[in-house]
Amino acid sequence: MVMRSKKTEAAKGVPLGSTYKRCSCRDPRTRRELGKSCPKLARSDHGPWAYSIELPEDDDGERRPRRRISFETEAAAQKELDLILSLLAIPKQGDTKSLTRIGDLIAEAIRTKQPIPDVDTVRARVRPKGGLRDRVKFGAYLLGWLPGRKGLSRNTRRSYESHIRLYLVPCLGDIWLDELERGDFKLMFERIEEFNDRIEEMRNSRDPEQRALVRYRRPVGIASMHRIMATARKALNDAVHIDGLIPSTPR
């Protein structure tokens, strides 16, 4: 018994995708995997659901059939397939450059077993004249963002620079800009609190060398933490409204 596939077609000529069920049972004579032909697949508890999709050709014109086999239900497989088809429908008619780049994103996510990027994130990266804006990490964005800021007072620029150098880049710099979450900032402030505790511990040490190491170090107060967050918020707002790199600030 072969489980029937459910086929879905996106707009603008995007190839068909389908969901199906398969397993790793083998034919007792040939030892080959039965795959979608296993008679036990009619049972709800036998075999995972999967989807297959023909992604747009890569830069070399090579076909890119892809599949993911990891879903407990057909609905879950169909949901991810629908997301992929929605992504492939984003580019305007004739924008093959964007279509190829979006195919690259999807293929890489499937290859590395990572989540498929959401529609808002990908749509924000599509350039008006085709292609996608580069994906950047928060640290790299901050280091390029500050020099481009015009009209800042000397003190404001110095404050932004210290927040970026001492806290934002060391704590959050390796996170992709479009993957930042509020929880990441919570962890940063927890690290700052640990830093404060360490300073206090060294100041109260009986070892004069330990006390000397923190002679000119001050704990980061609540007001300073608010200013650090304000710097991050300003940069993220610019990433949304000026650079169009992310659809919204972290929620």
From TrEMBL:
Domain of life assignment? Bacteria
Q: Which SUPFAM superfamilies match?
A: DNA breaking-rejoining enzymes (SSF56349)
Enumerate the UniProt keywords alphabetically: DNA-binding
Q: What is this protein called?
A: Core-binding (CB) domain-containing protein
Q: What is the lineage of its organism?
A: Bacteria, Bacillati, Actinomycetota, Actinomycetes, Pseudonocardiales
